[in-house]
Amino acid sequence: MPSTSKSSSKSKLILTTGNYASAEGAIAVGCRFFAGYPITPSSEIAHYMSRRLPQVGGSFIQMEDELASIVAVVGASYAGVKAMTATSGPGLSLMAETVGLGFMLEAPMVIVTVMRGGPSTGQPTKASQSDVMQTRYLSHGDYEMIVLAPATVQECYDFSIKAFNLAEKYRTPVIVATDGIVGQMMEPVSYHSNFEVITRKGPQVPPDKYQPFEVLDDDLVPGMATAGSEYNFYVTGLTHDNTGSPDMTPEREIELVKRLCDKIRRARPDINDWEEKYLEDAETVILSYGINSRGNPEAVAQARKKGHKVGYVRLKTIWPFPDELMERFGKLGVKKVLVTEMNYGQIIREVERFRHLGFSVSGLLVPTTIPFSPAFIYEGLMKEVNR
Amino acid sequence: MTTSNEVFVPDLDYPEDHPLHGRLNLNRFIFCPGCLIGTAITSITTCLVERGLTPKDYAIVSGIGCTGRSSGCFKAPAFHATHGRAIPFATGLKLANPDLEVFVLSGDGDLFAIGGNHFIHACRRNVEINVICNNNGIYGMTGGQCAPTTSIGDFTSTSPYGNIEPPFNLVSLAAAAGASFVARWPGYDTLRLRESIFKAMDNPGFSFIEVLAPCFTQYGRKNKRGDAVKMLEWLREMVVIDKNCPPHEAEYSHENQRIVCGEFVNNPREGFSEKIKKLRETAQSRKK
Amino acid sequence: MLNSKRTPMLEPPKADKEYEIKVYTDICDGCELCVEFCPCNVLEIDMDSFNSRMLHYVKASALDKCTGCKQCERICPTVSIMVLEKEVPQEDK
């Protein structure tokens, strides 16, 4: 099992931006390698890392492009170091291929993507939630992605820590999808050290018996050897058998893809997390995530004052999609789900898959670059309640 | 349903008394018999063995293609990266674990077409990796397409009327980009190649060795150059060894029948991970 | 031919040395590179036998001509041929 250690000490409250908090969270949990390429609005993470990483004995490198950044991160991960990169939509598009490699090689790594308006160059200095599907279906092939969506600067810090822990625990790339506003706004943050640090599972057998993709535990995660140890291994992006040798049989493809996907799917109860309020008696529920969820408490409080049975849910992990939450909606007898997103309809399609559980799904979907105000959400909510 | 081929494949390994026992995985040698990629692999391995390095001291990274499959032949930490990304992968490895001797063994299409940008930036940065490029002037594995190193007039799958693009001169490119060790040898000249591999390992910065390993299966067939041995004869007639040639004059031309080989740059300077080490000291002293 | 033009890269063998050539027949692909590169025509492909992969392999047919230049060993893509020194008993002294 992955080794864990718990630490705690007094925490201080400081005023900082989401991007700095993301970077500091990564350093707090043990990230010692950052390779990146400047892109608005994520550049501050690289700024912070270039200053802080040498102080803590890490390596910062500004690569020639995003393609190189993400590959260097995979390389560093296989040298046994916790590694990350940060980018925004266009850069994430360039990283797509290697995220697939990271999933195939089972390399723990973290990518912070600070979402901005798109498509193409879009609105670099503004926020958006239009990359939600991109974070899930980034690379080609069949795979599962873990994506966390912080809504506050404090969560930027906490989710960086959580992302590294999930990446190390399940040996998979993890994306933290913040956005231009959360990344660049300032809020008081506690840089606490009251968290668990998970480090990857090492090889469980002596070097002569070691096979890099041999699964010995129920969690489907093989022990990971790193370059520079006594262990010899070959890892390839080709479909491989347990020894790492390329294997072009259909049986092997089935076995490998199933294991890699099941590794994440089975762990959904451990990964998925959301915040909910008034769900017990709610007939109409607002479902949102990220910066756009911050108007919900106000809008819902207004509606409840008027006697409407409404509640709200904020997804903290977008992917893998929390099917359990939808089942909970069904059990609690939710009648209507209103999905609010700063895009033209992405997560709503996932929610629509669960209509058979007895609720109707509608959306408040605007491809805007500023978050919805409580008044706008309230208006949309009232329309939905009275429909 | 099963569609796997039930062909008997014997499990190959070197016997205990062989000097390369435990260093190479012969079952992953997928190369055409007579291809000099194998010679490059065994040359590197022999040099590592002669230096007394064990697999925990080194790592091999390769990209995609014929030479891309070579990393699997090593019994060591070996990585088969995505197409063109062998050098950044090696950069990440080296920076995260500076004690490793990192070798990149990849082809000309991988390193200079899709990965050309990474190559020149690694030269500029002087990362302490040894890049060995198997230059066969063609995309072998994907079916013999035109590469950035294919000479003018040569026939490939995508240049059926003869190639019209001038090729890269790899050693000039590497030298101009700032590599601190640059050499070019024909793949059959193993003695000089091994000397250069030793020098590359001694060099504190980025080392680049171009190995000429003609592809008889794709290139030879399409250009009527004959089999493996005939192609090496053809290559041998073009090769001129000139150790004092400046890199920008190191001609690589099939039309002029002249390929200048030798060591063109040997200018050791401080590598990138050493600089990062010093940067850390500066950062930590300023913090106080 | 290549072998007609090449000269051995190592110094000429000493008088008190003989060489034996060891071929790891299963590993040999029969690519003929060593046959062509041998400056003394020591090697040939054995057309009468097969290895476990049903390939013809190389054999030393004129071992007495071997000068120990090890060109075959270095050019072999799989190092399936090795040149070993054999000490000759010095009876003259």
Would you kindly provide a brief summary of this structure?
Chain A contains 13 helices and 17 strands. With 387 residues, chain A is of the alpha/beta class.
Overview of the molecule:
By secondary structure, chain A is of the alpha/beta class. Chain A has helices at 18-29, 43-55, 66-78, 89-105, 132-136, 153-170, 180-184, 250-265, 268-271, 296-305, 323-332, 347-352, 374-385, and strands at 3-7, 13-17, 31-36, 59-62, 82-87, 109-115, 146-148, 173-179, 186-190, 195-199, 234-236, 274-277, 284-289, 310-315, 317-319, 336-341, 360-365. Helix content of chain A is 36%, strand content 22%. The longest helix of chain A is centred in the middle third of the chain and has 18 residues, at 153-170. Chain B contains nine helices and eleven strands. In chain B, strand 5 (138-139) and strand 6 (145-146) form a beta hairpin. In chain B, helix 1 (37-50) packs across helix 6 (190-202), helix 3 packs across helix 4 and helix 4 crosses helix 5. Chain C has a single domain (2-7, 18-86), classed as Alpha-Beta Plaits (2-Layer Sandwich). With 93 residues, chain C is α+β, with helices and mostly antiparallel strands. In chain C, the strands form two sheets. Chain C has a two-stranded antiparallel ribbon. In chain C, strands 2-3 form a two-stranded antiparallel sheet. The N and C termini of chain C lie far apart (42 Å). At the A-B interface, strand 3, helix 2, helix 3, helix 4 and strand 11 of A face strand 2, helix 2, helix 4 and helix 9 of B.
